[in-house]
Structure formats: structure tokens, C-alpha cells
Amino acid sequence: MKSLKNTSKSNKYIQIGELSELTGVTTATINFYIRSGLLPPPKKINKTRALYKKSYVKKIKEIKTLQSEGITLKGIKQFFDGTGNINITTSNRYKADKKQTLKSSYTIDEFIEVIGVTKSTYHSLITLNLLNKPARSSNGFHVHSRRDVIIGKAYTRLINYGVSAKFLSRHHLYNKLSLSEARFLQEHLAESNDPSDPDINQSIIASFDLVRRYMRSNELENLNRKNQRSN
User: How many CA atoms lie within 13 A of 150 on its CB side?
Assistant: First the structure.
């Protein structure tokens, strides 16, 4: 128990009971948000226990507020994933305070500030085709989408965890693999009962991603086992 408390304190993690108290939602709702992809999986301590980042509190409160405005969970997930926009029409305090959080497009300077990288790293990501080039908006500005912000923050986390920008440049070597997966996904979509239904297509894409992640995780476990035996 002592080590669990130390982990929670040092890494700013909390248990699900405390998360439930801080957000006013049940533990079942929290688990449902995780299964729905609105929250990332928690940090597993063992088979029956897990820890949740304190940042979940803010995310859950955002989900609840957006739900109160009539946004469906599917719409909220699409917004968080950067594949959909939410039109803010009311002017309550939350929306005023969260104007930046709920932006759907970012100028280059805003983007660099939000994801937390240097300009040189940003330009390297663009040059290596690891990040989409900014698009020209209707008002003439070059902007990045929320989807770009999500992947940009992923790169930032990798860098903060010790993966060098130079090492990240190797991702472009796997462009052919990405193309193969895209073609394979396209074949899945073509097999759909109704290829014109956007809801079905979105579900197929999400399910495809889960399958690929599952297969990749299995291969990683196999590699780790081989490395352990060789050591």
C-alpha cells in the first residue's frame, strides 16, 4: 500500500474513488467514458487496481459540460479526436474560460505554443512529413486543425519521455507501412453493409484501429519475451 501511495503522489495519480468524488460521476460512468474512447486507459497497478491522472478531472468536467449543451458522446469524441467541430453558441462562463481549449483551428504560433515545442522542432516535423502542413483558412491565415494538435502533443510527450527528435525522424521510414494500413482500412470500408453511412464508417475505422493496436501489442509482448530469454 505504501508504494501505491508514493506512486500516486509523485506522478499525480489518484484512485477511481477519489476521481468519482472530484467529478461527481459514478465509477461506472468513468469506466464507460474509457470504453467509449473519451478517456485514455488508466495506469494498471495490478489485475484489479489502477491509477488515474488528475488531468482526468478536467477532461470529465469538459465532457459533462458539453453533454449539458446537448452534444452526444459520439460528437464529443469526434471533437476530442479532431474529426469534428462544436459550434459554441451560448455564452456561459465555462465557454468563455475554455475558448482556447475548444478551438478547432490554430495559427502556427498558437500551435507551437499549445503543443510546447521549439520552432525548429516544429519545422522538422513538417519537413519530415510527420505533421500535416498548415492549411490556409478562409481569412487567409495558415492554421492547424485540432487533430494536428493531438498528434503534435503526442510527439511532445515522446520527446519529454526521452525519445529524441532525431529518433522521431525515423517515423517517415514507415510511410509505406502507413500506406499499406490505409489501403487495408479502405478495403474494410468497402466491405461495409452500407459504405455511404458515415456512422458505420466511423465505427469501422475505430474498430480497425483497435484491432491493429491489439495485434501490435501482441507482437511487442512477443519481442519482450524473446529479449528476456536472450538475456
Answer: 14
Please report, for residues 10, 105, 135, the alpha-carbon distance to residue 51 in angstroms, rounded to integers and kept in the order given. Answer: 12, 32, 39
Task: Give a yes or no: residue 29 inside a domain.
Answer: yes
C-alpha cell at 185: 482500412
CATH of the domain at 54: 1.10.1660.10
Count CA within 13 A, CB hemisphere, residue 210: 9
CA neighbours within 13 Å on the CB side: how many for 201? 10
Compute the Cα dihedral for 21, 25, 26, 32 and give only its sign. Answer: negative
- Count of structural domains, the chain: 1
pTM attached to this predicted model:
0.53
Q: Is position 4 within any domain?
A: yes
119-143 residue pLDDT tens:
998 998 998 888 999 999 888 899 9
pLDDT tens digits, 21-54: 888 888 888 988 888 888 888 888 887 788 998 8
CB 83 within 8 A of CB 147: yes
Domain of 35, in residue numbers? 1-72
> From CA 220, how far away is CA 217, in angstroms rounded?
5
**Domain-located, residue 218:** no
Q: Work out the angle at residue 63's Cα, subtended by the Cα atoms of residues 26 and 25, and round it to the nearest 5 degrees.
A: 10
- Dump pLDDT digits (tens) for 3-29: 444 444 445 889 998 898 888 888 888
Give the distance from CA 74 to its chain's centroid.
Answer: 15
